[in-house]
Amino acid sequence: MAIDNLYVMKETYNLDLMTERLESLKAAIICGLSYSLIFTLASILNRQLFKEYFRELMNFSIFTLNFHWLISAGIAGFSGFLFGVTYRYIIRDDENLQLKAGAVLAFGFIRGLTQVDIGLNFSLPIFPVVLLPLESILGFAYAAIILDRAIKFGWVKPFVGNQ
Questions:
Q1: Confidence class for position 55, pLDDT limits 50, 70, 90
Q2: Does residue 6 sit within a domain?
Q3: Which position has the higher pLDDT, 15 or 152?
Q4: Residue 110, number of CB atoms within 10 A of its CB
Q5: Is 27 inside any structural domain?
Q6: What span, in angstroms and rounded, lies between the C-alpha atoms of 102 and 56?
């Protein structure tokens, strides 16, 4: 039993493993902030252009930062955070465009279709229900581009896996 605990401790404090965790954390923070920025810009754009479709946005003001918006922004930031960790592990150190697009589409559709499901339950008009998944996909695509640039500039190291 003591030998098992020693192995777990040794594996936990492995320098290579800690380095990988730090790189994943950096990727997560970059994507979380990127997605949060897109969410904020999309919220402002939705308020200005599509308020006749989003009746609940009529009372919404990005500057008053109401409770609902803060919760939505937190969820969006956390979604981007999780995307950053996952995307780094998915793409590794190769340039496979199908993997990159698949990761973006998977996260975008999961977030967007959840919003569609909720919108259909509340009988919202079809236009905003279609707009939300597209917005999610574009947000994750933006986060992926930012993370790809961070990897290219050496700010985040790509995941290379077990050698």
A1: low
A2: no
A3: 152
A4: 14
A5: yes
A6: 33
